Amino acid sequence: MNTHLTTALRLATARVPVIPLSADKRPVANCPACTNLACGGRPNMKTSGPCQCPRPCHGWAAATTEPATLTAPAWATSWRRAGAVAYHPGGAGLTVVDLDHAEAIAWARRELPATRAVPTTRGEHWIYLGAMPSANGVRDGVDIKSTMSYARWLGPGTGTMTTLPDAVRALIVAKPLPVRPVTAAVPTGSEECRHRAPAYLERGIAMAEERISEAASGVHATVYRTFLAVLSAHGRCGCLTDAHAARLFSAAQAKGESPRHCVDAWSNARTALGM
Predict the structure, then answer these.
(1) pLDDT at position 34, please?
(2) Over the Cα atoms of the chain, what is R_g?
(3) Contacts of residue 189, Cβ cutoff 8 Å, sequence gap at least 6
(4) Which residues of the chain are modeled with pLDDT < 70?
């Protein structure tokens, strides 16, 4: 049996959801439609792409603890192509603080409670018991990998696992929104305002926040479509402000989107609308 599949099955027995990972650290597509990103999925493949599989076939959303799925014929090619195994920390009730270099490790030792540590190529994974939203770049060399994300399995590590502390949760709450890209994205009165009252815009923003918050899957796509709808309805008259955009970014980040993905989705929506 493939050694990566053997590892995956052992983790699945411990109720850790797993997926095959390629040598370049991207999840391997598990159906022909998604091979080589043919489905149009994002290069980092952190969510399932827009293929028509009966269930998510790649990325964190496909992570499973079901041996029958892991050993299914449809996944056989994936395991042959795999260079490693990845797991969905949030699905296992875990949070990984990915420390990418020595300075980040030194910061963690000063500021965070000790927990189980796993050596990586350039740094360490600190693993806490408890799940939270994921976020990249919460500080220099530090990423949070938990819900709607994946981490490479590098072994069990050493040390006793500690309950997820408030100091880690606060890392994504305290992270400022990327103001500059948002400011550049808001039009300034290029068309006559067609809003009947301020409440019209407020209701639109509130509905958009709710749509993002209620997304159960395909969050990347939901965020993009919501940004597109908001900009289409409110983005050309100058009424849409940085504060409105920040609310949408906050809703997206609460679902696990990184600030960079928010900026990309906002920019792509503007481009699609010719803005």
Answers:
(1) 65
(2) 20
(3) 237, 238
(4) 1, 30-58, 173-198, 275
Q: How many CB atoms lie within 10 A of CB 45?
A: 25
Q: What's the Cα-to-Cα distance from 20 to each of 43, 87, 176, 246, rounded to whole Å?
A: 16, 9, 34, 35
80 vs 44: CA distance, rounded Å: 20
88 token code pair: 């969905």
pTM over cut 0.85: no
SS3 244: helix
End-to-end CA distance of the chain: give it in Å, rounded. 53
Instruction: Report the alpha-carbon distance of residue 127 to residue 114 in Å, rounded.
Output: 9
Q: How far apart, in whole angstroms, are the C-alpha atoms of residue 161 and residue 14?
A: 15
Residue among 121, 129, 144 at smallest CA distance from 46: 144
Q: How far apart are CA 39 and CA 32, in angstroms?
A: 9
CA angle, residues 266, 272, 273, in degrees to nearest 5:
90
244 HSE (CA, 13 A, CB side): 25
Dihedral sign of CA atoms 133, 136, 137, 141 in order: positive
Which pLDDT score, from 0 to 100, does residue 175 have? 42
Reading the block at residue 271, the tokens are 């481009």
For residue 228, the SS3 value is helix
Q: Counting Cβ atoms within 10 Å, is residue 104 exposed (0-12), middle (13-18) or buried (19+)?
A: buried
Helix ranges (DSSP H) in the chain: 3-13, 67-70, 73-81, 102-111, 166-173, 179-185, 198-213, 219-234, 242-254, 259-272
